Amino acid sequence: MLLIRCPYCETERPELEFRYGGEALLERPKDPALVSDDAWTAYLWTCKNPKGPHAERWRHVHGCGRFFNAARNTVSDLIVSTWRVDDSPPANFDGGGA
Amino acid sequence: MTQPFRLPSGGRIDRARVLRFSFDGRAFEGHPGDSLASALLANGVHLVGRSFKYHRPRGIVSAGSEEPNALVTIDRGAGRMTPNLRATQIELYDGLVATSQNRWPSLEFDIGAIGQFASRLIPAGFYYKTFLWPPRAWKHLYEPLIRRAAGLGKAPGEPDPDTYAHQFAHCDVLVVGGGPAGLQAALAAAAQAESVILCDEQPEPGGSALHDPARASELSDLLAKLRALSHVRILQRTTAFGMFAQNFVALAQRLSDHIEPSAASGPRERLWQVRAKRIVLATGAIERPLVFPGNDLPGVMLAEAARIYANRFCALPGKRIVIATSADSAYEAAGDLRRAGAEIVAIVDAREGRPIADDFNVIAGAIIDTKGRARIEGCTVQLADGSTLPVDCDVLLMSGGWTPNASLLSQARGALRFEPILQTFVPDVLPPGISCVGACAGDLRPQGDASRPIHPKAFVDFQNDVTSADIALAVREGFRSIEHIKRYTTNGMATDQGKTSNLNAMMIAAAERSVAPQDIGATTFRPPYTPVTFGTFAGASRGELFEPVRRLPSHQWAKAHGGVFEDAGQWKRVSCFARPAETMRDCVNREVLTVRKKVGVFDASSLGKIELAGPDAVDFLNRIYINDFSALAIGRCRYALMLHESGVVLDDGIVARLAEDRFHITTTSGGIGHVLQHMEDFLQTEYTDLRVWLTDVTEQWATFAIQGPLAGNIVQSLLPDAGLSQASLPHMSLRELVWNGSDLRLMRASFTGEAGFEINVPSVQGAALWDTLVDAAERLDGCAYGLEALNVLRAEKGYIIVGQETDGSVTADDLGYGKMVGARKGDFVGKRSLSLPHLAAKGRKQLVGLLPLQLAQTFEEGAQITQAPHPASGTHALGHVTTAFWSATLDRFIALALLEDGRARIGQTLHVPMPAGAIAVQVTSPVFFDPDGSRLRG
Amino acid sequence: MQRFSFLQLLRQSFRNHEGWEPQWRAASPKAAYDVVIVGGGGHGLATAYYLASEHGLRNIAVVEKGWIGGGNTGRNTTIVRSNYLFEESEALFEHSMKLWEGLSQALNYNVMYSPRGVLVLAHNTTDAQVIRRHVHANRLAGIDNEWMTPEQAKDFCPILDISRNVRYPIVGASLQRRGGTARHDAVAWGYARAASALGVDIIENCEVTAIRRDAGGGVQGLETTRGEIATRKIGLVTAGHTSVVAAMAGLRLPMESYPLQALVSEPVKPVMPCVVMSNSIHAYMSQSDKGELVIGAGTDAYTSYSQRGALHVAQHTLDALCELFPIVRRLRMLRSWGGIVDVTPDRSPIIGKSPVEGLFLNCGWGTGGFKATPGSGHLFAHTLAKNEAHPIVAPFGLDRFRTGALVDESTAAAVAH
């Protein structure tokens, strides 16, 4: 069970209080009607799914209820840092490859 | 004479008390402090089990949790039968009943042992090469025979009445292993740390010091110091069995199996989940057997085990002992056993650099054979010059050296390296926060290696009957990876998980492949370290605690009034309210007709409810739902659909506007969790410009539907001063009122097609209001109705249920709700996907009604729809039936279906193939009753 | 290939089993191949075997970064069934089922396919509706699957508790009699042996480090830890790691990798004649020939390549099984392990061409790939050999995510009221 630091509650809590929210930093097209099927479905379905550092979303569902972002290494499962959705990711974080 | 092999003094048993126990029906005696194994040895019993494959007689090999052979079933009364327990770990209590396993009719005369004679024919992997013909024989003949012969003990036949507990703990330092190294590590840690937990799998701490008289005072000194420290917690009978991410360790504590059943109380076992800042592994080392022909006879055991039995348990394994070794530690065993009264016939040492021990008959050589049937009687020693020497003995001890017990380290992704001086693997790379001390770290007495002859009777894995010849065969057949060899031979896959066999197997494989042991590598250790009871994982999570039960406000009333309950998610909902002597179908028909003709009340409290507030509420709704809410007036409601971003229907419900910036929203009963997650997701991470707040108020409001031509009468009598009329509260509108001193939200809405209302009151008022409503309904010849009647009422009107008419592939247009999409508003969740080729394609499945052409014919939900009356196997289905039922209103069977190009097929005749034959159906509109909705307006 | 038979076993037993040959050749990579299969699991080995046996290709290599069958092939709960809902899935898994039925004989290797029956339990009205829909769809497709009352289910599997007063009562079940289990390792080894005999090079300890492409973007070859290999056609069959290898060709896929755990009990004498699955409780269990109860858990909540699941996930599975089979509460977990599964948005596999010329995909089998092993290999071999998708796998192309024609079996079981 992972220990996850909620950047809103500013406390480290067990994984059971959280819900995983998939890849972070995805940008929904500003006006979906203007993008092609390819661009839309790429946004909708494709994932980086990297082996290594991964920027991902978690929600402190049994806590403050807030979504936040986390940088986790998907090989060791170690969470390097967490940050609020309106903050920037850590400077040295590569976001999970190309 | 009882206990003929019991030593007169010393040790850690309490001779003052005698414990009676039975093994395979024979009565024996032992003492407190004994294990079942030590008590059996004190009584001269060595034969305790039969091996898995060849059913060979087997004795006690070890004195600990690494034991491969001595597995027994312990019977503690009804439902308390436990198979496959190690006699070496079972603490003796008065009245203990143990039986041997995997033998028939008895341990001494086991029919299965004829397998031995076929052993030449059934080496490792034989089953992959035969049983191929005839093809059906595998299922009907060979496999049943193999299954019957396999398995060890019998599974319990009754539910387990015992309870299990869970505990979470945090500590600065967790020390695993209570031997001298672990105790010292705990003491050292305690000087700095605020909290220390030490766990140890044995009944008392001490580890190897428990059988080393020279260290007795050191041990009691250490324990006294530790026990004086309040921040050190010592857990006995507690095995650390699993290492998980971020120093999360699982421990299994055995609480009551060592107590006689009549005196045992409380939970049987406890699962500890410990988060430690630092972990010290002091898990010791495991002695390896030697690999030689006949090394599996009862009476052949590990040298240190014999020392443990003599020194700690005062049970002498034999009187004439031969010791075969490649490790110095065996000489200490020899000394202690001689002092205990045994004759050390010879020490056979395989090493060049063996120690000088003039007081023993030390022979340079190796054992090449043993004799005896169910107990060793002698062995043959091959000397350095090649000559052989027969030696008589009643016990043959072996020590192939020690292997650091690195199972937990391996689980934690630590790495091992081969240490040539010790001829074994030792810890190399330690994960962060984990350290090893003592023998586990490779701190071992001098030891070397012995040869491992390839022979079909030289056993490596005793329990699974894997021999050195099997490993050589696997290598010969091209299995090179140690993981392949393990799987092909099953070495290390028995209930001991290869604690005594893995290293020998690796060394044989390395030699056969002519590669260095380092290059062949170790197999991965997997949790648990030793087997852990399923019940321990489950803990208190059983029955209602396994999954919470949610009950409606009307639950008690329903129980008293014939309510037939059904599970829907966590809710207990009521299918119907059956009257005496009423069949379920009669009951549903009565409830349906009562609603259509008079009035019915329904407990809809399980509906999800969300309170939405904020200045941008309308904007948010417009982006989440397909509908346009811009023009929704205060006090008005709208049926609304929500899509997944992929364009398919996610949920539906009613959105009611309470104020300019406040809405009352309902969701499906099962949908509230994911709908709220969906809304929050968009609100927090996508529509961050919107000032809107969402609150789940499902538990705050009790919700009742009052439906039928007389519904208005009930509401009028309930709220006489509200002045409600069709004009002041039209269909799909809402009013906030007060009833009985509480807030009340009254909505004119219908899920039945009848004029009706939905009333929300605070949950605490729910039961009272329900009683009032049922009373009022019954005075008007109305009744309470259940889920089944609701399902019929709504389907007669063609109203959908998300999850029944939808299945994750259905769009709003498929349901006939395409017009609900707000044409003038901008983007909303799922909109873009609606123009993807497949979603915009012609010929999609659409919601229609079906009527069987012959009135008496019925079919089931889920039935398929075809063009032809007698479809050939593999015929494409045009659709399927989503809802099918007897309509009491129409007095006929009707159904809803999703059908390819369904709206264009209205009027066609199609077929529903059922097992007894196809049923011809006519495709109709999904609205069977009151299509123009005149009844809604009362 | 040295034939396996009882007579051969007898003959070898008189020679102390000295005469057995390696089951497959330990090959080293050649400079070039017509087709290279990346991934030596069951699906990859089966693909190579059918390429050689049915399409006459001989110059084929299977490259495996570790040891063959060491990924999900060796880590699953070995369930075989074809009672899927949608016609596309039915065709795919039934094709596989038919191959299972003669596989031991075809490969001359006992893969222990044991059609002992797969029982799927219904615990409430919604379950029953969903399961009945499967039964009807399967009957129309000619796939055996039958509805059973609780009493009939208990007759078939006596350790079921069908009393009504439990938290999750059994209200009915479906049974696919031809469903069952097979021996996972044997499937990998049997295909490897048969493929090797047809000249396929099986190259272990050979990890792909890069995919080389020509000026037009087409596949040119592979770089591996054992040197460069030239090829114009690559079949990517690397369950769990597909995203990682596909990224070497610049591809980003609709796929996430999740940990999936399984576990076994200590062996006991036979108590379970069949496979039992409960989708509501998220648990499934069968008993191996050795006597171990084989138990599958759900995937963990977050993506990971750690091959290590969380304790609370396994715990929840065991809670559920103890609830379903109260007599197992006293049995003990012997061994647990984790695999990495590729999960696509619609939980169905991706088989076929990729946008990169010469790169073919066979991935995304999620938690249920083992049962598809023979069919997947057979149909993928066709696709590779003919340069176009076999009709059965055509609906499972990558393109479906662009058109929206998803094949989503999982949401057909959606619980909502």
**Approximately what portion of the residues of chain A adopt beta-strand conformation?**
25-35%
| Counted beta strands of chain C | 19
> Rg of chain A to the nearest angstrom?
14 Å
Mass-distribution shape of chain A: globular
SS-based structural class of chain A? mainly beta
- What is the level 1 CATH name of chain A? Alpha Beta
CATH architecture of chain A: 2-Layer Sandwich
Quaternary state of this entry equals heterotrimer
- Envelope shape of chain C: globular
Approximately how much helix is present in the residues of chain C?
Answer: 25-40%
Helix percent band of chain A: under 10%
**Largest interface, with Cβ-Cβ < 8 Å?**
B-C, 117 and 113 residues
CATH homologous superfamily (4th level) name of chain A: Folate-binding superfamily
User: Element order, helices and strands of chain C?
Assistant: HEHEEHHEHEHEEHEEEEEHEEEEHEEEHH
Report how far apart the termini of chain C are: 59 Å
Note the total helix count of chain A: 1
Low-pLDDT runs of chain C? none
Low-confidence stretches of chain A: none
Summarize this entry quickly.
The complex is a heterotrimer of chains A (98), B (938) and C (417). Chain B contains 21 helices and 48 strands.
